[in-house]
Batch of 3 targets.
Target 1
Amino acid sequence: MKKLAIALLTLTLVFNLCACGQSSSSAASASSTTSTSAASSEASSSEVSSSEAASSEAAASETAVSADAAATASATTGLYTNLDQAALLEAIGQFKGLCNVSTVNADGTPNIAIFVPGVADDSHIFFNWADNATKANVLREKTAIMSYDIADPTAEEKAGRHSGAVVKLELEEDAEVLAQLQEANESVSEASVVLKIVEVLPVG
């Protein structure tokens, strides 16, 4: 009996030890699987983030290139800019084109109106304006922008249907210059608003 009891006790201990070993092994395996899954998830997330960042940078780069290309193309077309200052003044003297004068109102809003300019000399034009917003703006701001367009709807080529220029103008306030212009040109009077041509620019 004594030997049988010892044998049963030994078997119980062996069984318990085996059970504990299996439990520890399962726990370690589960822990290892969880760690591996977490690492894989982090790696996948990192790859997605990197991919999204790369796509975003590529899109931004393409947009910048497109903007640069558009700006460059706009600045270099030259399709309607075949009037230099001398040709512009000749066209104005012959009343060939349509003149728009753009100014800034006192509240900062834009103002644009159609007028007929006159040629004072080879660097000045003039307007015999009645009291209006454009005149008030020029006298206050001392500057204006003029566009001059000569249309030729009969031209075969599209580029030939318009010619002209955009002109930066500055109020002439030199009393001596104004006196000389009035003396040389009977159309220029003390009431005239005389503007100096500062720069002839491309259209568009």
Target 2
Amino acid sequence: MITVSVANQKGGEGKTTTSLNLAVGLARRGKRTLLVDMDPQANSTGIFVNPETTKGNLYHIFNNKTKMKDIIVPIYNNSLSLAPSSMALAEMEAMSNNAVDAPYILRDALQSVEKDFDFCIIDCPPSLSIFTINSLVASNFVIIPLQAEKFSVDGIVGLQQTISSIKKRINPNLEILGALITQLKPQTLLTKTILPVLGKYFRIFENSISDGVAVGESHLAKKSVYDYNKSSRQAQEYEGFVEEVLSELQK
């Protein structure tokens, strides 16, 4: 199982959108995929199920009350499953920080199901919390959604330091697969100025996601962008992104 975290400590960069459309895109190609919603806001979960009515969720994993296989919910085309989140997960953050094995909880839980899936996509919270650290410790790769704007650049350094520290101390196999530019306005001066700066920090995926209404409308409809409007520009762009990710992983 190849595990990929979709991470950025800054909110509003497109983590949840990228996570769910990458996961659905892989499932549409017949890849057995597990989407893990590590964000206590449970936005990825809410696209597919009601976070408050699931029998089990990641709160129970971090509370050491159940196993990963007992919370996984099949959600799409027999190829995509979900490890749901819940707002209750936020209660575990302070408690988990004090435990010696705190960074390893998710990694250990996923080991029991790694033969059941080809890919695991982790939707990380918009912070460098214990949940983001767990996700990076459990992952082979990181994808970083970014907007082409100054505040996105400002937040990169902290994320880079966290990834480097985890790679050095805990998970030497962790690699940054690349940065995905989201909500792109290609003709603006700001975009033309910022993109070369971002490229100094990370490899930038050739595919980017343009600014448009299809993504926001798909959230309201509780669907992937492909299922909401497969002919939309953003759906086509995410299709290209999924193909690029698969190509990179197969090198």
Target 3
Amino acid sequence: MNIKTLLSASVATATLVATAPSAWAIDGAKGLYLGVGTGFSSLKNDESEVGDFIESGSESFDLDNDDNVFKGFVGYEFTPYFATEIFYADLGRTRLEGNSGANTDLESDAYGVSAVGQLPITPWFTAFAKAGLAKWETDVDGNLGNASVNLKDQDGTDPVYGVGAQFNFAPFLIRAEYERYDFDSDYQIDTFTASAGWRF
């Protein structure tokens, strides 16, 4: 291969590498998208706060509060800087391990809507922040070994907010995000998820 051919090949390769992200990305995309994701959850609160949340009247238990999270979302991007999403999240299980050997499980899920502020860093990489409202339910199964204590299921509508980053490869998207589901001061679930999606 002579110098001229080698130079031409090098220029062509460099041009392809430089322009590839723009070719893959959705430049100024607007419209509908959806995705699914998974990750893990972690409870911010300690034993006494969780006891208050379920009205156990006891702090004689240990927390096992890491579990898998599954979520789905559908969104609409109005501009490269703003979108809205509806979502559903299975937030996993928190286990209360009583000193008497009895266990109680708290299983939570939530659905709602969020506003998403977006900052396109490059044509293929976007940072975002979100805030919204989640309708949530926590089912409580067990009694911590005291049958006379009726632990209560909980539900409500409270804020959810988070931050993340998204890679745009037309028509695919990949995102990683952190969210906090702020049920109340006694029960706040942090989630860390990775999702894959599709633009229409």
